[in-house]
């Protein structure tokens, strides 16, 4: 699984860029290829999507943009193309405000997003956006996340989500795990798994 590519942009096309790394050109689908420049040395964050008949690399300028893409993919009814279309604008302030305020009319303006899917985006993401490393100071309606006092617990909660537990279920378990002090990340993960069983 790729995390990012450090290399030179050798091709700009309407739907993708080619990033050359060590003599190999990686075709990367991006929301707005023209946000990059030909022959620019870049670091592109990568999400690799494997399907039965294809392997596709999706690229992002920042790690937070990649994380937002991953959260959008977790929403029922949103595939990679729809998620990329939503993120094509480099300023995601309006998107985040719409999700926080439940502004479905803003979300249905994106290609392939109907009212039902827009409502699902709000439902699934409203409580998760504050965890992303965006600059929330200038976004109305969102309180800037306070630094966590327990990194081990935070890492354990993310690990539980990565195992497939829903954000809602993990949040319920988190309330019980907070009471357990002095555990390392593995200890919190183990305790969390016991609470699910």
TrEMBL record:
Task of the protein: The RuvA-RuvB-RuvC complex processes Holliday junction (HJ) DNA during genetic recombination and DNA repair, while the RuvA-RuvB complex plays an important role in the rescue of blocked DNA replication forks via replication fork reversal (RFR). RuvA specifically binds to HJ cruciform DNA, conferring on it an open structure. The RuvB hexamer acts as an ATP-dependent pump, pulling dsDNA into and through the RuvAB complex. HJ branch migration allows RuvC to scan DNA until it finds its consensus sequence, where it cleaves and resolves the cruciform DNA.
Keywords associated with the record: Cytoplasm, DNA damage, DNA recombination, DNA repair, DNA-binding, Hydrolase
InterPro entries: DNA_helicase_Holl-junc_RuvA_I, Hlx-hairpin-Hlx_DNA-bd_motif, NA-bd_OB-fold, RuvA, RuvA_2-like, RuvA_C, RuvA_C_sf
Protein name: Holliday junction branch migration complex subunit RuvA
Gene Ontology biological-process annotations: DNA recombination; DNA repair
Compartments, as annotated in UniProt: Cytoplasm
Superkingdom of origin: Bacteria
GO molecular function, one term: hydrolase activity
Family: Belongs to the RuvA family.
Annotated Helix-hairpin-helix DNA-binding motif class domain residues: 70-89, 105-124
Region (Domain II): 62-139
CDD domains cross-referenced by the UniProt entry: UBA_RuvA_C
Domain remark in the UniProt entry: Has three domains with a flexible linker between the domains II and III and assumes an 'L' shape. Domain III is highly mobile and contacts RuvB.
Subunit structure: Homotetramer. Forms an RuvA(8)-RuvB(12)-Holliday junction (HJ) complex. HJ DNA is sandwiched between 2 RuvA tetramers; dsDNA enters through RuvA and exits via RuvB. An RuvB hexamer assembles on each DNA strand where it exits the tetramer. Each RuvB hexamer is contacted by two RuvA subunits (via domain III) on 2 adjacent RuvB subunits; this complex drives branch migration. In the full resolvosome a probable DNA-RuvA(4)-RuvB(12)-RuvC(2) complex forms which resolves the HJ.
Listed GO CC annotations: cytoplasm; Holliday junction helicase complex; Holliday junction resolvase complex
SMART domains the record matches: HhH1
Annotated gene: ruvA
Domain III: annotated span: 148-197
Pfam families: HHH_5 (PF14520), RuvA_C (PF07499), RuvA_N (PF01330)
């Amino acid at each position: 699984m790729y995390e990012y590519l450090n290399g030179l942009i050798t091709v700009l096309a309407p739907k993708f860029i080619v990033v050359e790394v060590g003599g190999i050109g990686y075709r990367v689908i991006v929301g707005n290829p023209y946000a990059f420049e030909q022959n620019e040395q870049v670091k592109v964050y990568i999400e690799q999507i494997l399907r039965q008949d294809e392997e596709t690399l999706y690229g992002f300028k920042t790690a937070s943009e990649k994380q937002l893409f991953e959260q959008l993919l977790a929403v029922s009814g949103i595939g990679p193309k729809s998620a990329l279309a939503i993120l094509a604008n480099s300023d995601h302030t309006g998107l985040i405000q719409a999700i926080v305020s439940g502004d479905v009319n803003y979300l249905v303006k994106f290609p392939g997003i109907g009212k039902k899917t827009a409502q699902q985006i709000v439902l699934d993401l409203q409580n998760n956006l504050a965890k992303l490393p965006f600059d929330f100071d200038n976004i109305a309606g969102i309180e800037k996340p306070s630094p966590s006092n327990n990194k081990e617990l935070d890492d354990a909660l993310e690990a539980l989500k990565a195992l497939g537990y829903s954000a809602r279920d993990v949040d319920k378990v988190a309330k019980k795990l907070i009471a357990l002090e002095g555990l390392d990340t593995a200890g919190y993960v183990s305790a969390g798994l016991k609470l699910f069983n």
